[in-house]
Amino acid sequence: MGKFLALILILSALAAGGAMYYLQVYGFYEDVKLQPGRDVMLVPLNGGEAQPVAYSEFEAIDAGSSPIRYRACFRTKVTPDALAQLFTLTDKLEPRNAPGWFECFDAAAIGKQLANGSAKSFLSVKNISFGVDRVVAVTDDGRGYVWHELNDCGQKAYDGTVVGEECPARPATGE
To answer: Least CB-packed of 38, 67, 161, 165 within 10 Å?
Structure first.
């Protein structure tokens, strides 16, 4: 009887582990519908409304379970230096990892390009979700990447620090 119970416990643990892995890596993600002219936007140097950037070959994934799971890849003919003349650069140089099956987004390679100067990162949308900004990186060879990153208000809100007056009011959660 003891061996039978041990076998049930082991099989249950394996099933639970497999389910957790699947849900984290595959389960919650879905393809993002294209919104031509709105998928890749950057904030101008003067801080006005975000402006669209010409792009092609856009693909993106997102998950409703977290505001920082968005990842996208695209191509553009506009160089990072040309974009830097018009749009706001950001210091976000470490993109978040994407699931391995989303092959166009390699966070380590993007991070290296940002660090060595062969790519630049730009502010795309401030507070796309409370405490989360959208960041766009463009490489010298015309590849582009998009991800969501916690901003200062998000860092404070999620680590329990007092947010302060400089941050927008946190939306009600309905609880």
So the answer is: 165
